[in-house]
């Protein structure tokens, strides 16, 4: 297992900073979401230092869908970047942190009327319009409230990001955004640009998640800038281009992410060149990484409860967690690395399948992983679970969600462990 950030091994046991996994288990219990706070902050700073230009402002948004609670929103606020949200609930959570509403970009292919109203009433900075129904809906709300809203339009540049079908977002039949190739696209843009209720700042695109080819991002930038040229030629000024997130990360040795800092510099250079070729000027270039900021900074600690060998010869480790706290392997075959945290350097001896406690055969976190001999009560650390684990978690089988701690010099509990009462709180 690759040790990211401040993970290290002392006396054969994984530690995060100065805290051993046994200490964390004893103090906070398992399953436990553990965030390496300093590493998360370091990742944000890397983005800020590499994604900058002398020709335009750069703006980095944390894609909060990757992992959101009040604590992380405050960290993002302290690191002085912006944030995106895709639901009223995400906006509400962010507003309950120190983050100011004007730093929020509101995305989503199907924003409900009540969510749009909430966003407008809360003073959300920018709303990213996805479709024509939304233009009408939002315009009616703004008219009623006598307000003007800064907006971007989400466009689909038709790029194949070569990633899993469930996390690709920019093929021509994607559910997101308006195609730059559709016949009425310029009419739609003109309608927004000419509305007295909107201030059209620019365009947004996001080609997918866990994308490893630099070329996909370059093609996206090229398509979008060529398109901005066409729109500018029609007399509509575009000042902001938001190219989304999706930068691929390491989960297992099958993933080969590009070196981020080098890539970001090349990305900026490419965009500067494309703008120059098209004789265009942008005021702001925005990106919105989620996974590449938080994924490798989060890990999940479990206890091995039962070791079971099947008649067919499969060696299972049943952990105290499940697909409830990590749905990604069941949802789209995501892969992870793990170690026995208290036996890190022991010889790898057996092939195990790490399975959860849900009544689903698909409730498997890792298939066929070589580990040292596992015994009950051993600690299993699954790494790089920071993104889309907690945020996709559920109470299936009425299982309580784990607690989440942020570890730096000190430890902060960001989310309490759920109780049986929590599971019942809406039952009448
Ligand atoms: C619009 C938008 N922006 C940003 C992201 C963040 O993607 P990632 O976490 O892969 O960086 C997503 C993820 O699905 C998204 O839909």
Automatic annotation (TrEMBL):
Keywords: Amino-acid biosynthesis, Decarboxylase, Lyase, Lysine biosynthesis, Pyridoxal phosphate. Pathway: Amino-acid biosynthesis; L-lysine biosynthesis via DAP pathway; L-lysine from DL-2,6-diaminopimelate: step 1/1. Gene3D superfamilies: Alanine racemase, Lyase, Ornithine Decarboxylase, Chain A, domain 1. The modification N6-(pyridoxal phosphate)lysine is found at residue 65. One of its GO terms (biological process) is lysine biosynthetic process via diaminopimelate. Pyridoxal 5'-phosphate binds at residues 246, 288-291, 388. InterPro entries: Ala_racemase/Decarboxylase_C (IPR009006), DAP_deCOOHase_LysA (IPR002986), De-COase2_CS (IPR022657), De-COase2_N (IPR022644), Orn/DAP/Arg_de-COase (IPR000183), PLP-binding_barrel (IPR029066). It catalyses: meso-2,6-diaminopimelate + H(+) = L-lysine + CO2. Substrate binds at residues 291, 328, 332, 360, 388. Its EC number is 4.1.1.20. It is an enzyme of class 4 (lyase). NCBIfam families: lysA (TIGR01048). Homodimer. Belongs to the Orn/Lys/Arg decarboxylase class-II family. LysA subfamily. The active site is at residue 359. Its cofactor is pyridoxal 5'-phosphate. GO terms for molecular function: diaminopimelate decarboxylase activity; pyridoxal phosphate binding. Specifically catalyzes the decarboxylation of meso-diaminopimelate (meso-DAP) to L-lysine. The keyword Lyase applies. The keyword Membrane does not apply. Residues 41-294 form the Orn/DAP/Arg decarboxylase 2 N-terminal domain. This is Diaminopimelate decarboxylase.
């Amino acid at each position: 297992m690759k040790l990211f950030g401040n993970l290290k091994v002392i006396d054969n046991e994984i530690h995060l900073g100065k805290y051993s996994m046994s200490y964390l288990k004893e103090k906070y219990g398992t399953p436990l979401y553990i965030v390496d706070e300093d590493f998360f902050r370091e990742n944000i700073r890397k983005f800020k230092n590499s994604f900058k230009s002398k020709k335009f402002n750069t703006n980095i948004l944390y894609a909060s869908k990757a992992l959101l609670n009040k604590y992380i929103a405050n960290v993002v606020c302290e690191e002085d970047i912006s944030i995106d949200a895709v639901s009223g609930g995400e906006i509400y959570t962010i507003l309950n942190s120190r983050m100011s509403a004007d730093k929020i970009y509101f995305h989503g292919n199907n924003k409900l009327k009540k969510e749009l109203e909430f966003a407008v009433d809360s003073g959300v900075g920018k709303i990213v319009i996805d479709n024509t129904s939304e233009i009408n809906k939002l315009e009616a709300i703004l008219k009623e409230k006598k307000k003007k809203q800064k907006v971007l339009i989400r466009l689909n540049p038709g790029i194949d990001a070569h990633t899993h079908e469930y996390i690709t977002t920019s093929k021509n039949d994607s559910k997101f955004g308006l195609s730059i190739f559709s016949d009425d696209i310029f009419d739609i843009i003109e309608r927004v640009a000419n509305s007295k209720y909107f201030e059209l700042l620019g365009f947004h695109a996001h080609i997918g998640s866990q994308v490893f080819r630099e070329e996909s991002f370059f093609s996206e930038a090229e398509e979008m800038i060529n398109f901005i040229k066409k729109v500018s030629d029609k007399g509509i000024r575009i000042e902001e281009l938001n190219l989304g997130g999706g930068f691929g990360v390491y989960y297992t040795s099958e993933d080969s992410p590009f070196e981020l800092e080098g890539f970001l510099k090349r990305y900026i250079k490419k965009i500067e060149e494309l703008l120059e070729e098209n004789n265009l000027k942008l005021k702001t270039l925005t990106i919105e990484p989620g996974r590449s900021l938080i994924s490798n900074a989060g890990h999940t600690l479990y206890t091995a409860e039962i070791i079971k060998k099947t008649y067919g010869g499969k060696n299972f480790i049943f952990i105290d967690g499940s697909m409830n706290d990590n749905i990604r392997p069941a949802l789209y075959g995501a892969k992870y690395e793990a170690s026995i945290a208290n036996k890190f350097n022991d010889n790898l001896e057996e092939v195990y399948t790490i399975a959860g406690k849900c009544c689903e055969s698909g409730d498997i976190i890792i298939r066929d992983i070589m580990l040292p001999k596992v015994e009950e009560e051993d600690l299993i650390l699954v790494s790089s679970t920071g993104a889309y684990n907690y945020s996709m978690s559920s109470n299936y089988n009425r299982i309580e969600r784990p607690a989440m701690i942020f570890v730096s010099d000190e430890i902060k509990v960001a989310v309490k462990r759920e109780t049986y009462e929590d599971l019942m709180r809406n039952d009448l």
